[in-house]
Amino acid sequence: MKRKLGLLLAISALLLSACMATGQKSAPGDAIGSVDPDKLLQDYGVFAEAYRQYQPDGDDLDAMARLEGKGLIVMFGTWCHDSEREVPRLLKLLDESQVKIAWLQLVAVDRHKQEPSGLNRQYQLHYTPTIILLSEGEEVGRIVEKPQKSLAADLAALADRAP
């Protein structure tokens, strides 16, 4: 009986420590804060591979022209599978379309979706990635986690709503 109780306590302690570990804000290797797009692709192989594999079509590249002069804030997690898919696609679309956006800010958040500058609070971040389109400093709209149609089409539709 004592042996079973001891085994049960040991298993319980192991499970409790595993649950506590998943509550970490960040893990070794997670990016936090402002991230340079080239550095992201250099340091995170999953992002680089998704960038390499994604081949946008002509319609998507044409749609990106509607982002001319707009700004983008991208809040994402290097630990997030949706971010691993959507952020490289966005970077490839921007690169291949050669659209002249006003600025791009990549902001990596921890596993509690927080980061040092406070943009996560300012823009009420709940899910990653969140891609926010801005015009003249004002939010026009956002894509959360994944686009409805395609990333380029959804961004172009948001851009069409800009003043």
From TrEMBL:
Record-given protein name: Thioredoxin family protein
Range of residues in the leader sequence: 1-21
Stored CDD domains: TRX_family
Sorted UniProt keywords: Signal
